[in-house]
Specification:
- The complex is a heterodimer of chains A (140) and B (800).
- With 140 residues, chain A is mainly α.
- Chain A is built from 5 helices and 2 strands; from the N terminus they run ααααββα.
- In chain A, strands 1-2 form a two-stranded antiparallel ribbon.
- In chain A, strand 1 and strand 2 form a beta hairpin.
- Chain B is elongated.
- Classes of the chains: A mainly alpha (140), B mainly alpha (800).
């Protein structure tokens, strides 16, 4: 029997963006308030899982045509690359740098290479979670 | 690197070339390529005679591992040269003999000569090394090459058995010797034998002296087949006869003798040395000759005879050590034993080598070595018969052969034991001449059996596989040379007295400023020794003639005393016990292994905690407990305890989730928002995964509660208790303040962040994080691989 999940699907469409926004917020705010790459990544994959629950696997793949293996690799590259980048400036591995800048619209900001590292964490966590869920889900 | 070093390693170098020669020149017997080397070596070593005859020595050193004090120091002195000449001389004869003995079309000649050359080089290394570690290296090399040679016909089970047995026993002794070497190094700080000898007076009272002595003796006794380690030698007779003649009569089995002689200046001051060597030697002499009489295989007789003769040389070396304890008596009075040892060493190598070759010829020409099948071969093989007579009569100690002279000297040495009044020798010392005499009677009997049962009596052609005929001349050359030596040395013993024997003696017992001068007299006059020999001959002939009547003594006697049985049952017993033990504790059940691990954990930690007095309970540093904490702790405790007692797995999973969420609440309570966030999400995911596992579990009809087991309860309570105690003690024993103040101060100043947890994670200690995400990535890839790459099962799914 095919069920009609219209309420779930509609609710998902709305809630999804809230979750994604929240996760992006948590990710970016991580350096100042609780949060960071790890929780941000988990929440983003939570949003994708919600999609998976509301729709089926193929639809989600159409919506998000991402190879999560590459995502893990990219995340690791970001993390290690950030660390290795420090070597170019003749400082020890994983030495972070930051500057304060004033941007026209966004105002006073501090740009930090730690955010790039955190981005690596974020990508790996999303990739890992999605790989685990998808692999187990596709298996019969 | 000098010419001397080159001489020692030249057999190894030639061993590399032998397989090439074997492949290239299939028409020529490979032995011909090998033969020139030992001859060359022999003539090279002859050139050293001029130096050693003056009782001097030459040392050439070659740096090997200087940082550890290990140099390849080669030293040629009287003793080393004597052995080097035996090795290269008899080596040449054996190679010549083997050329005719081994068929070039039927045998794997390349391996044979490679092994033989390895052995020759190793043996030269043993006797010419002045460094104990180098000596040990070559020593083990002789064990290995002997193992390979005994197992040369590896398709025979008996060869493999003999090879394994000799390997186990000699390597056991070799390792024990290594222990002795290390102990000596600890005492003296050097591996150089010359230096150790030079400083031997100081180590005499050292507490490690006796252990080192015992270690060396075990090494020497196993290699030289002394009682009770002699059991490997008769089984080593499965080797081709040239090997038996070379290794198991003339060279390898004398390595132990060499070691005893070489270490005499270090250890001989101690009474234990004299007692052990002389005692074990005389026992071996007796037991070997006694056992030889009952053998029916020619080579087995010769093997036991070798055992007994080695025992004789060993006992002489032991008695000779007594000379060190007398300063007033004329030195040569007691050193006659040492002279006899060296002299008999040479004699034994000559007659035993030729006898083995004779046995090989008999085997080769008739197809059997069983003396019950042999007989009356005298007319078919006159030359072989002559050689056998010379060899056996010399072995039995009959004039005019060289064995007679050394046996006379042996008796002299043994009779003089009676006059020693040291080390309580006056109490049990009389056993030495008595045992020596009885053993000589047995030696006489088996010597006669060897020659007369084989060559005289009734000829039994139906028992023989081949029609017997005289051996080819090539096969006879080597035993003829050896037998001629037996006669030459018998008639003119003094040609080797001052060239070989005295220098060797000077090396065995160096006395400052004393020059050994040896004379061997053919005729002593009417001495007790002469009458002992006459008695041996009379009783020996009597017993040989009446042999069938008393032979049944052997049927019940030695069977009970067989050391082989002890060895075999010991070996299988060790295997059996090890098997049982491993089966008992490695039973494959993970529960059991966890029991071991946790029990070990509890015992170790608890004992350390209380033995070291580390347990301490100090509540002064504890903060006040809030009501909310008590509530949460109760929730967790109830959840955790209920998990153990619920029936359904589903309930367990949900309870576990409850515990996890409560932990998250604890994080909230203890102001760890990052942890609380992560804990919540992760707990959700893991509960979902648990449910997934639960869903896929095979249908079990009645879900039962976990059965109660007292051991498990005790262990789990124990683990909990230990961890709690350690946590209390650790908290009460804080020695330093936390380093967190640095992070608090610098999170914003240096890292431009305000969330300290995150700043530590990505900045201060980002290195850890980098590898934690790597761990995650590996886990994901692992899950992906496990599920997608199910071989066989995965393919089925694709076909659907």
């Amino acid at each position: 029997m095919k069920t009609n999940d219209v309420i779930l699907q509609t609710a998902t469409k709305v809630v999804l963006f809230l979750i994604v926004l929240f996760s992006v917020y948590i990710f970016f705010a991580g350096h100042y308030t609780p949060g960071g790459g790890f929780v941000g990544g988990l929440l983003t994959s939570g949003a994708i899982i919600l999609l998976l629950l509301a729709f089926d696997m193929k639809t989600v793949e159409k919506i998000l045509p991402v190879n999560y293996m590459y995502m893990i690799a990219a995340g690791l590259l970001f993390a290690i690359g950030t660390g290795a980048g420090a070597l170019l400036f003749n400082v020890p591995f994983l030495t972070h740098a930051f500057t304060d800048v004033d941007l026209p619209i966004l105002g006073h900001l501090s740009l930090h290479t730690a955010a790039l590292f955190d981005l690596g964490v974020f990508l790996v966590v999303v990739g890992v979670t999605m790989i685990i869920i998808k692999t187990i889900g596709e298996d019969d | 690197m000098s010419l001397l070093h080159l001489a020692i390693i030249s057999p190894f170098l030639l061993a590399i070339l032998v397989p090439i020669a074997y492949k290239l020149f299939r028409q020529i017997h490979t032995g011909w390529f090998v033969l020139p080397l030992p001859i060359l070596l022999f003539s090279y070593f002859i050139s050293y005679l001029s130096i050693t005859s003056d009782q001097q020595s030459v040392t050439k050193s070659f740096s090997w591992i200087p940082a550890l004090g290990i140099d390849f120091a080669a030293k040629v002195d009287g003793l080393g040269l004597l052995f080097a000449l035996l090795i290269s001389g008899i080596g040449s004869l054996v190679v010549l003999y083997s050329i005719y003995y081994l068929d070039k079309n039927k045998e794997q000649l390349n391996t044979f000569y490679v092994y033989l050359l390895l052995f020759m080089g190793a043996m030269l290394g043993v006797v010419l090394s002045d460094n104990l570690i180098v000596l040990y290296t070559f020593w083990e090399f002789t064990s290995f090459s002997s193992f390979l040679l005994i197992g040369y016909w590896y398709h025979r089970e008996k060869s493999r058995y003999g090879a394994q047995k000799s390997m186990i026993i000699t390597v056991f002794g070799g390792l024990s010797m290594l222990g002795g070497i290390i102990l000596l190094y600890l005492m003296t700080g050097t591996f150089s034998i010359s230096e150790i000898i030079a400083g031997s007076d100081e180590i005499f009272s050292h507490s490690l002296f006796v252990p080192a002595l015992l270690c060396f003796l075990i090494g020497a006794f196993t290699k030289s087949a002394q009682f009770p380690f002699h059991i490997w030698l008769p089984d080593a007779m499965e080797a081709p006869t040239p090997v038996s003649a070379y290794l198991h009569s003339a060279t390898m089995v004398k390595a132990g003798i060499y070691l005893v002689a070489r270490m005499s200046p270090v250890f001989a001051e101690h009474s234990l040395w004299l007692w052990l060597i002389a005692g074990f030697g005389i026992t071996t002499l007796f037991w070997g000759s006694f056992s030889a009489v009952k053998q029916t295989d020619l080579k087995a007789i010769l093997a036991f005879s070798t055992v007994s003769q080695l025992g004789m040389i060993m006992s002489l070396l032991g008695i000779g050590a007594a000379a060190l304890h007398f300063e007033t008596v004329d030195d040569s009075y007691f050193t006659v034993a040492t002279t006899a040892a060296v002299f008999h060493l040479i004699n034994h190598a000559t007659f035993k080598g030729s006898l083995f070759m004779v046995a090989g010829i008999v085997d080769h020409e008739t197809g059997t070595r069983d003396i019950r099948k042999l007989g009356g071969l005298m007319n078919f093989m006159p030359i072989t018969f002559t050689l056998a007579v010379i060899g056996t009569f010399s072995m039995a100690g009959l004039p005019p052969f060289n064995g007679f002279l050394s046996k006379e000297m042996f008796f002299t040495g043994m009779v003089r034991v009676l006059e020693m009044d040291i080390f309580n020798l006056d109490t049990w010392g009389f056993l030495f001449p008595v045992l020596a005499w009885v053993a000589s009677v047995f030696t006489f009997i088996y010597s006669m059996i060897l020659v007369f049962k084989t060559f005289t009596g009734k000829f039994q052609p139906e028992q023989l596989e081949k029609k017997p005929h005289e051996a080819p001349i090539g096969m006879l050359i080597s035993p003829i040379i050896l037998a001629s030596l037996v006669i030459i040395i018998g008639f003119f013993p003094n040609i080797i007295a001052n060239t070989l024997i005295s220098p060797a003696q000077a090396a065995i017992m160096p006395v400052e400023g004393y020059v050994y001068d040896t004379h061997i007299y053919f005729w002593h006059g009417f001495t007790p020794e002469l009458f002992m020999t006459l008695g041996v001959i009379t009783l020996g002939i009597l017993l040989f003639v009446t042999l069938p009547k008393w032979r049944r003594v052997y049927d019940f006697l030695p069977e009970k005393l067989a050391l082989n049985r002890f060895y075999d049952s010991g070996l299988s017993g060790i295997q059996h016990v090890a098997h049982k033990f491993t089966k008992w504790y490695m039973n494959g059940s993970i529960r059991n292994y966890l029991v071991y691990i946790f029990t070990f954990f509890i015992i170790t930690l608890l004992s350390v905690l209380f033995l070291k007095g580390a347990f301490k309970f100090d509540a002064s540093n504890v903060s006040a407990i809030r009501f909310s904490e008590i509530v949460l702790a109760l929730v967790i405790a109830i959840g955790a305890i209920t998990i153990m007692f619920v029936k359904s797995r589903l309930t367990s999973i949900i309870l576990l989730g409850a515990v996890g969420y409560t932990v998250a609440l604890f994080f909230v309570l203890f102001r760890a928002p990052d942890l609380a966030l992560t804990q919540l999400v992760i707990e959700t995911i893991s509960v979902a995964l648990f449910l997934l596992c639960f869903y896929h579990l095979p249908q079990i009809k009645d879900e039962e509660r976990m059965p109660f087991k007292a051991t498990n309860a005790v262990i789990s309570i124990g683990v909990g208790l230990v961890i709690t105690l350690i946590a209390f003690s650790a908290h009460s024993n804080k020695l330093f303040d936390s380093i967190s103040q640095y992070y608090i101060d610098n999170t914003y100043e240096k890292a431009a962040g305000k969330n300290m947890v995150n700043v530590i994670l990505v900045d201060f200690r980002g290195f850890d994080t980098m590898f934690e995400i790597t761990v995650l990535a590996i886990a994901a890839l692992g899950i992906f691989g496990m599920i997608k790459l199910r071989l066989g099962g995965g393919k089925k799914n694709e076909n659907k």
